[in-house]
């Protein structure tokens, strides 16, 4: 399956999840590595835009395409997520939920719903997985963020 991520150009080959490890995210605690990807290029762009300050929008971006073995990603029923998973900002309960899987070397990744686009999904890659070699970076294309999207 192909998944996508928008990132600063200097991180276009990153499979270490350094940014998410340093800052944390909706589904991971600070200190827990994670590579956030989305099921489509457009969702990846929306997810990025929602999490970056408009005034600090970098111009040096790449849209990265990955090939992942979808069958090796854990999926859940919505009832299995913490009750407050949609809250803004991301609650501690979702950070705990995701981190419990991202700290497991046997888990390649997890599939989680987008809070931005209902019925679309993000695929969180576990950089510490013993199966990480199954992830392939297919291509990284220069991307110029159209500032009309967030203005």
Could you characterize what this model shows?
By secondary structure, this protein is α+β, with helices and mostly antiparallel strands. It has one domain. Helices cover 18% and strands 25% of the residues. It is built from three helices and seven strands; from the N terminus they run E-H-E-H-E-E-H-E-E-E. It has helices at 18-23, 41-50, 92-102; strands spanning 2-8, 35-38, 61-67, 73-74, 109-113, 121-125, 136-143. It has a four-stranded mixed β-sheet. Strands 1-3-7 form a three-stranded antiparallel β-sheet. The longest helix is centred in the middle third of the chain and has 11 residues, at 92-102.
Summed up, what is this model?
By secondary structure, the protein is of the alpha+beta class. It is built from three helices and seven strands; from the N terminus they run E-H-E-H-E-E-H-E-E-E. The strands form two sheets. It has a four-stranded mixed beta sheet. The chain has a three-stranded antiparallel beta sheet with strand order 1-3-7.
Features:
globular, 18% helix, alpha+beta, 151 residues
What portion of residues belong to β-strands? 25-35%
How many individual domains?
Answer: 1
Amino- and carboxy-terminal Cα gap: 33 Å
Main sheet: strands, sense, barrel: 4 strands, mixed
Low-confidence segments? none
Query: Globular, elongated, flat, extended or rod-shaped: what is the shape?
Result: globular
Roughly how much helix do the residues carry, as a percent range?
10-25%
Strand order of the largest sheet: 2-6-5-4
What is the number of beta strands?
7
Radius of gyration, rounded?
14 Å
User: What is the H-and-E element order?
Assistant: EHEHEEHEEE
Structural class per helix/strand content? alpha+beta
Arithmetic mean of pLDDT: 94
């Amino acid at each position: 399956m192909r998944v996508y991520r928008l990132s600063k150009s200097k991180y276009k080959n990153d499979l270490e999840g350094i940014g998410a490890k340093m800052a944390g995210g909706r589904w991971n605690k600070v200190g827990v590595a994670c590579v956030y990807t989305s099921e489509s290029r457009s969702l990846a762009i929306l997810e990025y835009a929602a999490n970056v300050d408009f005034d600090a929008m970098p111009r040096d971006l790449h849209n990265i395409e990955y090939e992942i073995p979808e069958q090796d990603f854990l999926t859940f029923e919505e009832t299995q997520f913490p009750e407050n998973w949609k809250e803004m900002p991301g609650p501690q309960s979702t950070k705990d939920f995701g981190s419990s899987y991202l700290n497991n070397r046997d888990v390649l990744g997890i599939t989680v719903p987008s809070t931005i686009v209902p019925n679309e999904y993000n695929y969180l890659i576990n950089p510490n997985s013993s199966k990480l070699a199954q992830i392939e970076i297919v291509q990284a294309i220069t991307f110029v963020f159209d500032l009309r999207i967030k203005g």
